Backbone:
């Protein structure tokens, strides 16, 4: 059990490292270096830049050393909490990201909760009542959910909302809370605004999970231990929840590891369509304006968020499957 | 029979309605189980033995359904008999009987337990389903049961998962679970098929020993005539969903009446036979369930078939002497006009 | 049929003998001598939805091939006076006679909002002509022609027909959709081909050699799969130099998409390799002294090729979605390239969409193609296991 946790943890660390390399690569990829861009910007805004100042900056970021030294320096800076400055916003990257990271987290987690909350009961129902009318309806909706990319779904819902309710259904806050400080009222306002993005983001994942749950449960329902349990005189409802559903949860939970990156990915585009104050629109803007420290940091943060999500799902999987706990898995 | 039987199955019909057609898995099976007796149901695979067991417990799965007949169970109190075939298959009454009065031991000890819970959890659950006892008490009873079925160090084993036990131990746990509520009838469906020979003998010994101690009735379902000889008081021979012969074990083995029973007995290997002698087999194979033969279901493979009778009329289970019953025209005349 | 075919099927008939020893009747005899591809085809044919989806996909690729022929207006020709015209219905009958026509539009300025509005003029019927002349293009890239499936007398269809309306720059949406099929469907194929090469190579190595190299590749796959793809693509796509041409961007996007897309295929290939390595017929070939390469190509390939085809079919829609998403964000293909994603870019602004909902019409082919590929892939996957 401990070995499993440690192995997963090491893999998570490895992934974070790989993501940091990728983020660094993204920062480095555009032609020209950061200092050149920064100085050009300062100059264009009328500030006199001395060559010493430029040299200092170069030293600080180690721009004249080999690439791996630069990477080391960058990670050292990050360890101290210095993620660099945003060229476009003229402020430390962290200040700009600010609340957006947490809001992204809130949207993603609520999408995961929605996905689960929808997929679990529907998947169970569809398997237990296989070939019922409801099963066919759910299967159909599931296919639509699978085939309509989330940003298209967002566009269509936005259009319908605009057309029939005359309201802009995007955003995460009502206008009066948009710029307000955090308070209970603002939190409640946020919670009220979360369902729509959560549903849009969760649809595709839910569709997939319903199919997985249904298929797994259909397999499990045919297993002899179900007959054993039935022969004990358990009620059908309790029996299905305790035995086959528990078994079918296993592959279900293991998909969480992939669900989380998938939802975070989707949230970037959906946030743009729904104009959510999350990290997505910021990332796009920073990329378009080649504000690479901001972009790299965002990619790094998003990556770390998914790694944490995946790690949690791994631990959950272990908790749910005694065979992993006992290292009986080959 | 002197006493009224504990369980009597009368003309039971369980059919499966599949897309390809109706499969009459059990088509008019009748037999009785006396108190404290062991009844063996024997037949080739696909003859409807297991479906009969599932029908008694009312856990036949879709698209299977009991379409006719009755299953009378005599209750402990003086309320008399209850017809299990008429109960709501998910209702309270039948659920109290399942696991409580009639328990099932399954043929696959590997997959009959859920791998997600400890064996203790799964037995305690059964006890608490049927008896109003606390968790602690149920757990102590479980340990006692595990000890009774011969599991070493039951206080530790109780918290193990099924995949940590060997096949033989798992079957013992299965028996312990079946016994947990002192059932009046234990149905053992191929309890030893998946085990190796020495373990088989141990499990059969265990079953007999427990039966002697508790006085319950046992229905043992098997395709193995050896198991029947060792365990059963009465034998029921099934072929294609019908009972073709029934009677006390000695009569069945020493003077089998039905040609099918005779063929079955001939195909048992004997240690007294010549070395390398070929075993006699039953000619032909079991017909496909969708096109069962007209008339006596066994007639295409029967060496003694009477042309114009066996392939036209369906024989009924009728007494051939005081002890035995057979469904064969060698012993009685057709009673009805041929089905149009 | 080439000479190699029956020999390649040798492994299969051996397999069918091993697994189906009891086949007897004449109809079943046919099954036991059938090659694996025949069995797959028989099984696939029963899958009604997959068959229909296959036809739909073929139709889409035909549209891509004959896009210019099916278009009637030059997809790149802008005209400020024809901005945001609504879709225009076709009238098929004229006084009881079959004669497809549209009404000419009159552009006016709304006296209050000063916006340009277009109204049909029922008195001016514009008859549609089949195989009419229009803008010039190269038919299948072979020869120049100016014939189009539909058009109007005089060849100025741009000014008269607007089946799906126009975009902000006055370009005809129907014609653009036809041309967009080409890039959107091709990028899927190109991306999948590249991930297929990567996936088969790395998955094959992983499954064949096992051990440390397998562990390494598996970890790489796990890491790649836990990275959120869209931010990564966005980062890489944004890092592309601005001065790259359409073709360069196209190839770069393809490479980026397949850098992540190969992991699924690699898993399938590895899984099949591991399963097949244990099969008796592979062991038999090994014992007979057959070389490793020959075992892979002659004995193993026929039984995992079908799985790879199915997995590839299921990977295609993901590529198409990804391209659409990236282009929608303005980070993928850039105008003047035309793809469904590029077309949807116009629909980013909700106010625009609310006033001109026809800008969303490029979503329809996206959804249909993705659905069709999913159904087809499901059917193929079921059929890929003819003994299952």
Residues:
């Amino acid at each position: 059990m401990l070995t499993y946790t440690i192995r997963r943890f090491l893999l998570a660390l490895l992934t974070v490292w790989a993501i940091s390399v990728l983020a660094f690569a993204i920062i480095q990829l555009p032609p020209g270096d950061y200092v050149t861009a920064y100085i050009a910007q300062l100059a264009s805004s009328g500030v006199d830049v001395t060559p010493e100042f430029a040299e200092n900056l170069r030293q600080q970021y180690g721009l004249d050393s080999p690439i791996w030294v630069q990477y080391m320096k960058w990670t050292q800076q990050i360890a101290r909490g210095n993620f660099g400055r945003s060229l476009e916003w003229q402020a430390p990257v962290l200040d700009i990201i600010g609340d957006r990271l947490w809001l992204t987290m809130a949207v993603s987690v609520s999408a995961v909760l929605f996905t689960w909350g929808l997929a679990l009961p529907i998947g169970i129902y569809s398997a237990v009542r296989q070939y019922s009318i409801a099963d066919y309806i759910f299967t159909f909706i599931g296919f639509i959910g699978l085939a309509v990319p989330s940003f298209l779904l967002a566009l269509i819902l936005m259009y319908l909302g605009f057309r029939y309710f005359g309201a802009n259904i995007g955003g995460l806050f009502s206008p009066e809370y948009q710029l307000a400080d955090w308070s209970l009222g603002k939190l409640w306002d946020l919670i009220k605004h979360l369902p729509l993005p959560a549903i849009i983001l969760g649809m595709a994942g839910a569709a997939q999970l319903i199919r997985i749950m249904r298929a797994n449960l259909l397999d499990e329902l045919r297993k002899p231990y179900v007959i054993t349990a039935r022969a004990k005189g358990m009620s059908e409802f309790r029996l299905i929840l305790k035995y086959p559903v528990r078994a079918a949860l296993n592959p279900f939970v293991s998909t969480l590891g992939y669900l989380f990156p998938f939802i975070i990915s989707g949230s970037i585009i959906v946030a743009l369509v729904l104009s959510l104050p999350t990290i997505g629109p910021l990332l796009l803007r920073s990329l378009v304006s080649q504000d690479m420290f901001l972009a790299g940091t965002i990619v790094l943060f998003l990556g770390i968020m998914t790694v944490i999500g995946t790690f949690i799902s791994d631990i959950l999987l272990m908790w749910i499957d005694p065979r992993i706990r006992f290292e009986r898995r080959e | 029979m002197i006493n009224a039987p504990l369980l009597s199955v009368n003309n039971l019909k369980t059919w499966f309605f599949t897309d390809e057609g109706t499969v009459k898995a059990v088509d008019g099976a009748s037999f009785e189980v006396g108190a404290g007796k062991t009844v063996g149901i024997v037949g080739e695979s696909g003859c409807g033995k297991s479906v009969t067991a599932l029908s008694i417990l009312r856990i036949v799965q879709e698209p299977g359904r009991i379409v006719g007949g009755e299953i009378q169970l005599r209750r402990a109190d003086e309320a008399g008999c209850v017809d299990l075939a008429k109960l709501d298959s998910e209702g309270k009454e039948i659920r109290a009987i399942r696991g409580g009065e009639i328990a099932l031991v399954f043929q696959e000890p590997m997959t009959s337990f859920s791998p997600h819970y400890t064996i203790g959890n799964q037995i305690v659950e059964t006890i608490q389903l049927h008896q109003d006892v606390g968790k602690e008490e149920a757990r102590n009873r479980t340990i006692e049961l595990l000890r009774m079925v011969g599991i070493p160090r039951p206080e530790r084993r109780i918290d193990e998962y099924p995949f940590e036990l060997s096949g033989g131990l798992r079957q013992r746990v299965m028996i312990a679970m079946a016994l947990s509520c002192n059932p009046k009838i234990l149905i053992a469906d191929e309890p030893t098929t998946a085990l190796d020979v020495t373990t088989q003998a141990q499990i059969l010994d265990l079953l007999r020993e427990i039966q002697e101690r508790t006085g319950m009735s046992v229905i043992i379902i098997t395709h193995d005539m050896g198991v029947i000889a060792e365990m059963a008081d009465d034998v029921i021979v099934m072929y294609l969903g019908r009972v073709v012969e029934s009677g006390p074990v000695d009569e069945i083995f020493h003077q089998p009446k039905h040609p099918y029973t005779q063929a079955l007995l001939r195909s048992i290997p004997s240690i007294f036979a010549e070395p390398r002698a070929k075993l006699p087999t039953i000619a032909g194979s079991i017909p496909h369930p969708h096109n069962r033969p007209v008339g006596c279901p066994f007639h295409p493979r029967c060496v003694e078939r009477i042309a114009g009778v066996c392939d036209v009329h369906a024989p009924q289970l009728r007494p051939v002497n005081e002890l035995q019953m057979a469904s064969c025209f060698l012993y009685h005349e057709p009673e009805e006009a041929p089905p149009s | 049929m080439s000479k190699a075919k029956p020999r390649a099927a040798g492994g299969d008939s051996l397999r069918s003998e091993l697994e189906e020893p009891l086949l007897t009747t004449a109809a079943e005899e046919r099954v036991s001598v059938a090659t694996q591809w025949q069995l797959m085809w028989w099984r696939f044919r029963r899958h009604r939805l997959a068959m229909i989806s296959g036809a739909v996909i073929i139709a889409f690729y035909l549209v891509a091939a004959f896009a210019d022929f099916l278009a009637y207006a030059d997809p790149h020709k802008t005209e400020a006076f024809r901005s945001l015209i609504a879709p225009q219905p076709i009238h098929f009958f004229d006084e009881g006679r079959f004669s497809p026509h549209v009404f000419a539009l009159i552009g006016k300025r709304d006296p209050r909002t000063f916006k340009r509005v277009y109204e049909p003029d029922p008195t001016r019927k514009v008859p549609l002509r089949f195989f009419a002349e229009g803008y010039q293009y190269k038919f299948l890239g072979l020869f120049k022609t100016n014939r189009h499936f539909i058009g109007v007398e005089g060849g100025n269809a741009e000014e008269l027909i607007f089946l799906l309306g126009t975009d902000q720059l006055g370009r005809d949406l129907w014609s653009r959709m036809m041309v967009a099929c080409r890039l959107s469907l091709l990028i899927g194929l190109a991306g999948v081909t590249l991930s297929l090469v990567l996936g088969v190579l790395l998955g094959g190595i992983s499954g064949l050699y096992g051990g440390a190299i397998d562990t390494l590749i598996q970890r790489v796959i796990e890491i790649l799969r836990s990275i959120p793809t869209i931010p990564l693509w966005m980062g890489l796509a944004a890092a592309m130099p601005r001065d790259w041409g359409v073709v360069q961007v196209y190839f770069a996007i393809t490479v980026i998409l397949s850098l992540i897309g190969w992991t699924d295929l690699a898993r399938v290939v590895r899984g099949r390799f591991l399963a097949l390595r244990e099969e008796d017929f592979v062991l038999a070939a090994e014992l007979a002294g057959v070389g490793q390469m020959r075992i892979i190509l002659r004995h193993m390939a026929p039984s995992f090729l079908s799985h790879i085809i199915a997995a590839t079919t299921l990977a295609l829609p993901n590529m198409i979605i990804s391209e659409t998403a990236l282009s929608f964000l303005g980070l993928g293909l850039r105008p003047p390239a035309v793809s469904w994603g590029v077309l949807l870019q116009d629909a980013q602004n909700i106010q625009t969409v609310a006033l001109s909902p026809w800008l969303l019409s490029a979503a329809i082919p996206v959804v249909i193609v993705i659905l069709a590929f999913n159904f087809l892939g499901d059917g193929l996957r079921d059929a890929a296991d003819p003994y299952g």
Observations:
- Chains B and C do not touch (no CB pair under 8 Å).
- The CA atoms of residues 147 and 154 of chain B lie 6 Å apart.
- The mean pLDDT of chain B is 87.
- Chain B has ten helices and twelve strands.
